[in-house]
Amino acid sequence: MKNLRPYIAIVTSMLIWSVAGIAIKEALTVFPPMTMIVIRFALAVLLMLIIGIAARNISRKRIADGQSQQMSGLALQKVSRKDLPVFLLGGFFQPFLYYLLETFTYDSLSSPTISEALLSTAPVFAPLFGIVFLREKVTRNNILGIVISTLGMLLLVLFGADSFALGNPWGLLTAFLAVSAALLYSVTLKRIPEHYNSLTLVFYMQAFSLLLFTILWLFTDKKIEPVTISSVLSIIYLAVFSSVTAFILFCYTVRRIGITRANAFNNIRPAFTAIAMFLIFSEHLPLGKLLGIVLIIIGLFICQYNKPPKTTAQNQ
């Protein structure tokens, strides 16, 4: 079960992020992009601060009472000065740079499914980033699995011809830049010492990003349309689940199984998005899309498979 935890965590995070595109589109009907981002991450940072301080106080009390530190994994830790630059760099790449580019992509392209497909191309480039920056070993199974799951992702897009109008072509460029920022973020996660828990990583990175977002927000349009219940619920979803829960789970997974294998799961995001669009908005889900989903799942299994090392027979 311990070996399954990273995979349960990464699938859950991808499921959360796959629905985030729908929530972003809904929130943008009321809030300007920068206003939406600032509210989203302000709520997320505040939530993590409350959880982190409460968990730290509970852990200290249990230590004083001679009990186990069951809440220590959620306790907010102090970051040493020498590690702070890596935290800040990670926060610059994601959420700051990635979410600026992601929001523009969703705002520019016509369909959340297409946006998810483009933003989910990280697996194609993850092996290169892993080799160049971290000297990760990439196996033939990793490459084969990524190729198969990427073909499945392309099927999802190609069979979405009813919504294939791209919209603003600049969305294609911002999607590619967003993927690059996300992979550089993954690199920084592997550079951070293991003794920091995932909540500490996400909190400091998002707090720094919130500062940068707020500076940009001061120079942008702040006109808000009449607020709707769905737009408010969308921002709450983005803050609590997409910006806190999914980030913590993703950080945990990258530090356990590496950049290439963790980012391979990005291919499953458009599959989840297509299913969500079918269930929520009755968007057509033809056989080609279903085949794409199957190929994505098969590719993920192949990518994660590591051939057991050969063992020498022992004398009886």
- Uncertain stretches of 5 or more adjacent residues: 311-316
Mean pLDDT: 83
Class derived from helix and strand content: mainly alpha
Query: Helical percent range?
Result: over 70%
E-strand count: 0
Please, how many domains?
1
Estimate the strand proportion: under 5%
Number of helices: 12
User: What sequence of helices (H) and strands (E) makes up the elements?
Assistant: HHHHHHHHHHHH
Q: Can you tell me the overall shape?
A: globular
Described by strand count, sense and barrel closure, the largest sheet is: none
Q: Could you give the distance between the termini?
A: 31 Å
**Radius of gyration computed on alpha carbons:** 20 Å
Your description of this structure?
With 316 residues, the chain is mainly alpha-helical. The protein has one domain (5-60, 82-304). It is 72% helix and 0% strand. The chain has helices at 5-27, 33-64, 84-108, 112-119, 122-134, 140-158, 170-191, 198-217, 229-257, 259-263, 268-281, 287-304. Helix 2 crosses helix 9 and helix 4 runs antiparallel to helix 11. It starts with a helix and ends in a 12-residue tail after the last helix. Mean pLDDT is 83; it is low at 311-316.
How would you describe this structure in keywords?
316 residues; mainly alpha; globular; disordered C terminus
Task: Give a short synopsis of this structure.
With about 325 residues, the protein is mainly alpha-helical. It has helices spanning about 5-25, 35-65, 85-110, 110-120, 120-135, 140-160, 170-190, 200-215, 230-255, 260-265, 270-280, 285-305.
